[in-house]
Design brief:
Elements lengths: L1 E4 L3 E11 L2 E6 L5 E5 L7 H6 L2 H22 L7
Length: 81
């Protein structure tokens, strides 16, 4: 699952508890948890990005970074001794 943190950063989370209409989620990239309504949870990064223009920029950065790394890996020259 994903959330939009501070209105602009897409963060991956794991649902750890559901009570009284709130979902308690833990972050996958750091310690801590928060409680949110279901409407703040998204199944995919793309879904989260479509809900927020600032998050769209974040998604664009993630794709660009992934493409750059892929390009770097596929263009590595192997040197023979």
């Amino acid at each position: 699952m994903y959330i939009i943190e501070n209105g602009m950063h897409i963060k991956e989370v794991i649902i750890v508890n559901i009570a009284n209409g709130f979902y308690q989620v833990c972050f996958t990239d750091r310690r801590g948890s928060i409680k949110l309504r279901e409407s703040r949870l998204y199944k995919t990064i793309g879904e989260a990005a479509t809900k927020n223009s600032a998050a769209k920029n974040e998604l664009s950065k993630l794709h660009k970074k992934k493409n750059t790394i892929h390009h770097m890996i596929t263009n590595v020259d192997i040197m023979d001794d």
